[in-house]
Amino acid sequence: MMVNDVNQDSQLHSRNRHINPKHHFTLIAMILLLCHSLSVSALARDNAFEQVKKLEKEYSAERAETTIDQLLQLGDELRDEKKYKQALEAYEEVFTIDPGNVRASAKIDVVRQVMQREGKDETGIVKGVYEEEAKNKVISYWTEIRDYLKEEKYGQARFTLEKLLLLDPFNQEAIQLHETLSKRFRENDEAGEAL
Which residue, among 54, 49, 14, has the nearest Cα to 34 in the 3D structure? Predict the structure, then answer.
């Protein structure tokens, strides 16, 4: 019987050495509760509480480092795929976790150098985003113009058409429609003066 007890103790001790570090917090909390329930001295409770706080800090730091590593890896993959804007965003996200992260800063510098060598700069990326937004706005304006024309709200249609032409000044369809509406307004003005 004694040999079994020794074996069980040995197995228990062996298992305790391989506890996942993430579960230390739970173990320390359990110890804290045990200390409290056994009315152990205040010093022992304080010591257990300090251990819990220390492990919690270590766990948070470990999670933050893991997230940073994942963001840097994502940025590297996007950079390799020549998706520079998204790579920069991934690297810059690291600064929300660690504002002074040297690795992210160095990787941003590398991407900017690659972009410069390839003749792409951040203003080119911003310009591409602006052009996409402008195209979407032009489509939206056309929808508004057609609705105004159906409702015979020619003044609003012309005003919206003028906004469209600010974004797309060489749009022939818009130019022709603007001329037609302007002619209609001139004719209405002349007819109104004659009355």
Answer: 49
DSSP 54-104: HHHHHHHHHHHHHHHHHHHHHHHHHHHTT-HHHHHHHHHHHHHH-TT-HHH
Short-list 12, 102, 19, CA closest to 55: 19
Cβ atoms of residues 28 and 56 within 8 Å: no
Q: Per-residue pLDDT tens for 39-56?
A: 555 555 566 567 666 666
Q: pLDDT (tens digit, 9 = 90+) per residue, 103-147? A: 988 998 898 888 888 877 655 555 555 677 888 889 999 999 999
Distances (CA, A) of 171 to 34, 95, 140, 142: 78, 43, 15, 11
Contacts with 90 (C-beta within 8 Å, 6 or more apart), sequence order: 71, 72, 74, 75, 78
Q: 0.85 exceeded by the pTM?
A: no
